[in-house]
Design brief:
By secondary structure, the chain is mainly beta. It is about 5% helix and about 40% strand.
């Protein structure tokens, strides 16, 4: 769905499927039609979307979902590249394993984005090859894929050198050196809580905000159903907690996603007057 900054509806742009590719090229075996995240590389006139799953799976309890063989077949396996200006889908790339968040490099000379796959615990690189064609490749594992740590949110540092990756099941965040985007290397790991979902880096790279809720139907139960917003300071070597808000105790619901605004999108300099917004799950 496309809206103006004032919230006025512009139009709907349907995902390509096997039944209707909508003019896109199907580069692999999948064209599932699911949609999840969206990001842009404006200097390449590129829009990138990931797939995840459909309504029926979202409405199921996570434990029941993981045990339902048929439901597990209904997860997305694609990333789609689009023409940013016309919103026409261009190419359907195979990214098996339910790709979630997409984050694109900040530097204008860096023509690539990352995503992670929830079911196979891998980092995927969406990149432009030497011929100007967009490709997808798995470039690193996240933790032990056999234990399905369920990678969720990711965040790229403002200098394109580091990638933070959260894993919901173990409540950890992991830091990867992505100075060579073709070969990410994990260099740090820290336990954030019983469950963790979203991570947002401050523009200067010195603070990391973590929130807890994946989805009301999918969050953990009992004592592990922690609901919080936590701020950590990053000194280049260690994360140190600065504050935490217990959303359950404060009766604030389920904190989901922190997003920071910016007057200049691709600036590496932190500016003044940049606001932040926190979305909550029902």
């Amino acid at each position: 769905m496309e809206y103006t900054n004032e919230g006025e509806y512009i139009g709907t742009h349907w995902m390509p499927t096997d039944a209707d590719l909508r003019g896109a090229i199907k580069a692999g075996q999948f064209a599932d039609g699911y949609n999840y995240d969206v990001r842009a590389l404006p200097h390449k006139n590129l829009l990138v979307t990931s797939s995840f799953t459909g309504w029926n799976n979202y409405m199921m309890d996570l434990g029941k979902l993981l045990a339902d063989a048929d439901a597990m077949k209904h997860f997305g396996n694609t990333v789609v590249t689009w023409d940013l200006h016309t919103k026409a889908p261009k190419k359907v790339l195979d990214v098996p394993g339910a790709p979630l968040e997409i984050r694109c490099a900040w530097e204008k000379s860096h023509n690539y984005c990352f995503t992670t796959t929830a079911l196979t615990s891998q980092i995927w690189l969406i990149h432009e090859d030497d011929k100007g064609e967009w490709q997808a490749k798995s470039v690193a594992n996240i933790g032990d894929p056999t234990k399905v740590p369920l990678p969720v949110d990711i965040s790229i540092s403002n200098d394109d050198q580091r990638l933070w990756v959260n894993t919901f099941m173990d409540g950890n965040t992991r830091l990867f050196d992505i100075s060579n985007p073709q070969k990410p290397v994990q260099i740090y790991e820290k336990h954030i809580g019983a469950q963790v979902n979203m991570v947002s880096s401050s523009w200067d790279g010195k603070r990391l905000y973590f929130s807890s809720s994946l989805l009301a139907n999918w969050d953990k139960k009992g004592a592990d159903n922690e609901q919080y917003l936590k701020l950590f300071a990053w000194d280049g070597k260690e994360l140190k907690q600065t504050f935490a808000i217990d959303f359950t105790a404060a009766k604030l619901g389920r904190p989901h996603q922190m997003r920071f605004g910016a007057h200049a999108l691709y600036s590496n300099v932190a500016g003044k007057g940049h606001g932040a917004a926190l979305a909550q799950n029902p």
